[in-house]
Amino acid sequence: IAAGDARVHGVLASFCRARLIDNLERFSPLFAGLDATAVRRALSGFAARKLAPGDVAVEQGRLAPALFIVLEGALAVSMVTGTERALLRTLGAGDVFGEMSMLSEEGASASVTATVPSMVLVLPRVAFGELVLGLPTLRVRLELLAEQRRLQNDALLPDASSSATLI
Question: What is this structure's pTM?
């Protein structure tokens, strides 16, 4: 029915988006305990984006274009060191990425690539700045997440004296 009627498709898409935002607001640890109205307003600034397998959402060394929240699918986080590529982790529904580059204003420390058809919410850089200004607790949570990931990445990567082979 939706394929044959653009109005039905639009209504269904709006309903699904509203439901996803509601679920994120209620169940994401990132938003837990924050003012519900502010969170809902913030989440409404995200746009949905489909990723096909192989699509690169964030490229190592370049500024992340946005803050991302995975709605469905799987994305690989990988880092090139020298001539080797290391798989650091796989992201799934509810995971956030892009925060390290967004907070530091530096190039991303790793690339994030869809491994299966995926759907992400995307908050562009300018809107991200407004979001963390309006929700300072969220900024602190993202800073803690970024620091945890830096430490995890360092632990996963061999040091220069190691002869370990990266994936």
Answer: 0.79
